[in-house]
Design a protein that fits this description.
The complex is a heterodimer of chains A (166) and B (428).
Chain A lengths: L3 E8 L6 H4 L10 H5 L10 H4 L5 E4 L11 H8 L4 E4 L4 H10 L3 E3 L1 H6 L5 E5 L4 E4 L2 E4 L5 H9 L2 H12 L1
Parallel strand pairs in A: 1-2, 2-3, 3-4
Antiparallel strand pairs in A: 1-5, 5-6, 6-7
Chain B lengths: L4 H8 L13 E4 L3 E5 L2 H11 L11 E4 L9 H17 L3 E3 L7 H7 L8 E4 L13 E4 L2 H10 L2 E4 L3 E7 L8 H12 L8 E5 L1 H4 L3 H9 L8 E4 L3 H10 L17 E6 L6 E3 L7 E3 H4 L6 E4 L7 H11 L9 E4 L4 H9 L2 H8 L2 E2 L20 E4 L15 E4 L2 H10 L5 H5 L6
Helix pairs in contact in B: 2-5, 6-8, 11-13, 11-14
Classes of the chains: A alpha/beta (166), B alpha/beta (428).
Chain lengths: 166, 428
């Protein structure tokens, strides 16, 4: 995970569900680049044309609620999003994003302050988010999750656990 | 200080062995069952290989179900289902459920004795929490977490806080388990139990059968919960004794267990409820939406294609017809339920009424196939999510309701009190 992520804000509201992020009819697809074409297809068909690699998705409470489909964070990651900043995340999406190495940041204050089109700067090492000339603190992850994030996700963790068993 | 059901079940499954499991602690635990389907499976297999894993740690603990895009409606779906078959064969997975021989995962696994009180079940599907009806800790995960569990036989878990939901009193006519969970969502909202275990009890819950308990626990995730469980009681014991092949150990919370919150509801205080578009938390009394014209009625899903739901629907549809301008789809959740519904004459009543009866499948609930909605269409569904665009076009509108209300909407062509269609009947 890059220590500094700077990008343009795409602002969403509360309770963005994974059906909205990746419609069910595409769940027989596994190829990330193919999934990326359908992100927000039903509710915001222009999104994939507006978004640029490195952009930051900002949302309110309960981002990624609903279905456990990993196709949702996979599609967001394959679009090249720099980070997802939200007031809070739904549980399964939160795990999935960390597992896949999609950077996520919890900051209700930054999520509230950011506006569509703003430039946002996330410093994961310092745990701050700067937007609109103000700086906000990120909510820190529990130590175990910090290790997972630093390792790049769950795959390396499983590899090291398998080594221990051997 | 005592422990909740969630704390006790996680402690009992801890790899290192644990007397206690405190909320917020992270531990490694060994699930009894790992569930995959044709949506989560193929991605999990990719990650399994990426992890460098060769063999599944415990093939006996794995259940693979063909249910989402099943039978395959597209070539891509046929390939996904093929991946399930191949993995099951290569890894020697005994609990593989083929099209036509199983059904929808969360109704199927308890039926086949894989879910039991006190067990820990992880599934590549958010509605894995349905198993709480049977006193099991079921929790949904993404494909990478499932792949890790396949490879290691264990996974990391954070011990959740728990909230207690108590229902007392006698329910009004046409009120079901679905209304119980909609009442909870109305109260706490769609992130009111994020990362928590929801534990349900009280004499109102104790009077409900296993099917209705499934409807309740199924939607715990709609409040953001990690799991939702009914506190085991006489009904649980009877179900377990008559259905399970082997031993089990029911786990109840300690009397002095610590809950983050306790909610009390009086069942006599509400009639049938409906979740309006586009959120399961947008709940209103049925009267408030009565008169809404309906294009499609969909009765089925992982917890509402049960025999109880089908009997409720048949009680309304039997001897009546689906209204002109409206269409109805009924999906029995498993082959066993389908067969029993045939034996009871329920299927005949549906077909006679003009209903399309489907083979067991997740189907249109998640917008996969078998009844997607077009722009501007309105549906009443017994499913669990009415997010914008989930059942098809983003311009469709879905109301979530119990099977009586859905069936009555099919007959009337609009949302209506079931009593107006079928009289002031008692509860099924």
């Amino acid at each position: 995970m890059a220590a500094i992520i700077e990008g343009r804000v795409h602002k969403f509201g509360d309770d963005v569900d994974t059906d909205a992020i990746m419609p069910g009819r595409y769940l027989a697809i596994q190829e990330p680049a193919e999934l990326a074409k359908h992100v927000f297809e039903g509710v915001d068909p222009e999104f994939v044309r507006r978004v640029q690699p490195g952009d930051i998705l900002v949302a309110g409470r309960n981002f990624g609620s609903g279905s456990s489909r990993e196709h949702a964070p996979l599609g967001l990651k394959a679009l090249g999003l720099g980070c997802v900043v939200a007031a809070s995340f739904a549980r399964i999406f939160y795990r999935n994003a960390i597992n896949l190495g999609l950077p996520i940041v919890i900051s209700p204050e930054a999520a509230a302050a950011a506006r569509d089109g703003d430039t946002m700067r996330v410093d994961t090492a310092r745990g701050t988010v700067e937007v609109g000339g103000r700086s906000f603190a990120c909510q820190p992850f529990p130590p175990f999750l910090q290790e997972l994030i630093a390792a790049g996700g769950l795959v390396p963790w499983v590899r090291s656990e398998m080594e221990k068993v051997k | 200080m005592g422990m909740t059901m969630a704390q006790k079940i996680l402690a009992a499954h801890a790899v290192e062995g644990a007397e206690r499991a405190e909320p917020g602690a992270i531990l490694r635990a060994r699930p009894d069952v790992v569930l995959l389907n044709d949506v989560s499976g193929p991605l999990a297999f990719r990650q399994f290989r990426e992890m460098g894993a060769q063999r599944v740690a415990d093939p006996e603990a794995v259940a693979i179900v063909c249910d989402h895009f099943a039978p395959a409606p597209t070539l891509a779906a046929a390939q996904s289902l093929g991946e399930l078959r191949r993995f099951a064969r290569e890894q020697g997975i005994p609990h593989f459920f083929e099209v036509g021989q199983g059904g929808i995962e969360h109704s199927l696994l308890p039926e086949r004795g894989l879910v039991a009180p006190g067990r820990l079940v992880v599934g590549g599907d958010s509605h894995t929490c349905t198993y709480g009806a049977f006193g099991a800790f079921g929790t949904g995960l993404g494909s990478t977490d499932i792949a890790a569990t396949l490879a290691l036989g264990y996974l990391w878990f954070m011990v959740p806080e728990s909230s207690l939901f108590l229902f007392h009193g006698r329910r009004r006519p046409y009120v079901t388990g679905k209304d119980v969970v909609l009442r909870v969502l109305q109260e706490i909202g769609v992130d009111g139990a994020t990362y928590q275990s929801m534990e349900f009890g009280g004499d109102g819950i104790e009077a409900m059968n296993m099917d209705e308990r499934m409807a309740i626990c199924n939607m715990a995730v709609e409040a953001g919960a990690k799991t939702g469980m009914v506190i085991p009681d006489q009904v649980t014991e009877e179900w377990a004794r008559s259905r399970l092949p082997g031993p089990y150990r029911a786990v109840a919370p300690d009397p002095d267990a610590r809950y983050a919150a306790t909610y009390r509801f009086d069942l006599e205080e509400f009639g049938p409820l409906v979740a309006r578009p586009h959120s399961p938390g947008n709940v209103a009394p049925l009267e408030e939406v009565a008169g809404t014209r309906v294009d499609q009625v969909y009765i089925g899903n992982c917890a509402n294609g049960t025999l109880t739901d089908l009997r409720q629907a048949a009680a309304i549809l039997g001897g009546r017809k689906v209204a002109p301008g409206t269409r109805a789809v009924v999906v029995p959740a498993t082959q066993q339920i389908y067969r029993q519904a045939l034996a009871e004459g329920l299927i005949d009543r549906f077909v006679e009424a003009g209903v399309a009866v489907s083979t067991p499948t997740c189907g249109a609930c998640f917008g996969g196939h078998m009844g997607l909605l077009d722009d501007g269409e309105v549906a009443v569904a017994t499913t669990n999510r009415n997010f914008r665009g989930r059942m098809g076009h983003a311009g469709a509108r879905v109301y979530l309701a119990n099977a009586y209300v859905a069936a009555a909407a099919a007959v009337a062509g609009e949302i209506v009190d079931p009593a107006e269609v079928a009289g002031p009947a008692a509860v099924a």
